[in-house]
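Same chain as my last thread, 266 residues:
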Amino acid sequence: MIFDVITIFPGFFASILEHGLLKRALAGGQLEIRLHDLRDFTDDRHRTVDDRPFGGGPGMVLKPEPLFRAVEALRAEAPGAEFPVILLSPQGRLLRQAVAEELAQHPRLALICGRYEAVDERVAEHLATDELSIGDYVLSGGELPAAVVIEAVARLLPGVLGNEESLGAESFVAGVEASTATGRHGLLDCPHYTRPADFQGLAVPEVLLSGNHAQIAQWRHRQALEKTWRRRPDLLAAQALSEGDRNLLEEIKTEARAAGRARSGF
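reply #2:
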């Protein structure tokens, strides 16, 4: 898979690409990341990429000409081959796991990293085929979001993780083995433990030491459901829970209310 990243700070990505999963994917040939300096697509001696906004206001706006030239140059490399052109933008749709899975189906993606106050709106309307946001907060530019998109998508490519089974047990994918088996997705992951079994008096739950895989799967599913309810109830609101899960969730809530009353003394 090829990522073409258009940015005024190509050096930003140097350390990110030299470590961990992305380094392995690049070395293994599953991934190619090409960095394009936006200033290379200007036509003045100052290599100007921004200008003041029409109508006044603070900050500077990225000009449309170099961005259009950059994308046109990418398209000229493979005439007729369509690929998504994604503008990283606070106004874009939120990057979720389902979006990453959608993007992973493409052999090539172009990412436009915004900077300064804004990007000329004609880029969003007439050049980009999609806009993505990684969250409702303000960043100085699109480089960090681009890096997030690249990793979220790259780890879905065959052979990148090395252990494809681990994909099915992650938060926002399936949560736990039981969710994978029944096709339910979107729960947070269950708690995980490793050796020692007792650390400073903090013991690993006995069920995980039992060797009973059916009980372990049930425990993990319940824990994932409870964690999602406590930390991200919005995820549950979007779920089509089975009757068994709805009953289990009511049981979890009843136990939580009882524990709250016990702590308060009522």
